[in-house]
Give the backbone structure.
Amino acid sequence: MKSDVQISNEAKLKNIKEVAKELNISEDSLELYGNYKAKVNSSALKNKNHNGKVILVTAITPTKAGEGKTTVSIGLADGLRQIGKNACLALREPSLGPVMGLKGGATGGGYTQVVPMDDINLHFTGDLHAITAANNLISSTIDNELYYGNKLNLNPEDITFRRCMDINDRSLREVRVGCGSKFNGVERADKFNITVASEIMAVLCLSKDKADLEKRLNSILIGYTFDKKPMFVKDLGITGALLVLLKDAIKPNLVQTLEGTPAFIHGGPFANIAHGCNSIIATTYAKHLADYVVTEAGFGADLGAEKFLDIKSRIMDIEPAAVVLVATIRALKMHGGEDVSALKNENVDAMLKGIENLERHIQTIKNFNRPYVVAINRFYSDTDKEVEALEKYLESKGHPYALSNGFAEGGKGCIDLANLVLKVVEKDNSHIKRLYETTDSIETKILNVVKGAYGGAAVEYSELAQKKIEEFNKLGYSNLLVCMAKTQNSVTDDAKVIGAPTGFTIHVKDLSLSLGAGFIVVYTGKIITMPGLPEDPASKHMGIDENDNIYGLF
């Protein structure tokens, strides 16, 4: 089969104006970035009373085998269009970190892709660059304040705001700035986040409009004074400049799938560090313009789905009509103990053993009282015997399921899945039940997530974490939401633990305030906010051929 980028390069795309017409968006509401990309402004929202049904796509715990969550999301939207439904996508933007590193892009694969995939995976419309610039303007202004007399009385050793860049670079996790002579500023310790783990990214994605963005930017904590008084972005006097840098980035991007299905792609916070969902603005546009909105949340249901249901949907005041849980036989075999090198070999026993991980994530969705569908994302190496064994198991447990063959067949390969999702959506009238209330204590919120989303039993706090909780309570921030930063490779905080263990303890090592986003970030296990490159990064295998086509981009 051809590579993803070959399929993308050979596709005949519609002009983005035609795609916009599918959602009754006029040309006046578009800001064109060439023929196939556009920003959409608020004039497109003529009918704010129309509320399409939001369908959330999540997955089992990720493995090196790949689950294809974005592929299924795109295939489902295409499948809904194949059966005559007015559907569109609302997805996250890729980060250059994984694109140039190991994980890859976020545009789907095979014949279920959003396109132009090379543009989307690279610089796209410049949103992530704008977010990086806004973030680093805050950092440079903080250091400028210190250099020019420190009128804000900031304690250089108690500055909490970090610089960022959208490339994996482990050497920037711990740095010192202002080194050398006094001419270079005040020397202090600093750290870098990857852009998609920055608070600016979270703020942009959780803002409802420009006014809300301004309010959230003003609320970002930058650090503390020598007498422990918290200081905010509003104290720096640069909120207007930040809005200037983000004036285009706040507008959602419109592209299309290979089959011409409209797709809003906007914002891209990591789910193992940030909240893992595309922007509220893009999802709002989509549900006002389409009858069915397919969206996704990063990594497994313990991370992205939990954050969508506890954070994003709470802020948006929406309830997803259904949750699609993606599983692959390859990943189930790995959770059953099979080595990645042997996945092409039939192993029904390992797959059946690994189903405990699927059951763990099904229970998580049930804990939120949401109807669900299991999507079996079929790979070419899956044998009929493996597929039949998985189907037989799901039937015996009463789990609704459908095969997804979108990678090889596009929307046609997801028609069964689309019909099943519609069936579930139409018959369910239940309401969401979240894992915690805002009035719960910080410790109760964390424990409820550990029990309800991970299947764990207890939480152990470091001395630093306990001190932070005491501080946050004194400052009056106990009513904030919690955003759990945890490895994506396990339901525990140990990346090496596969399957679905129970009775385990989650270890909280630190917490930080993201007041602009409205949550407390809870750091568990060995989680890091600036990834490093692998030994053989994807960037070593990329280039441009004699016809100016990119190769090596998946």
Q: What stands out?
A: The longest strand covers residues 505-514. The domain at 4-125+249-427 is CATH 3.40.50.300 (Rossmann fold). The mean pLDDT is 95. The longest helix spans residues 127-147.
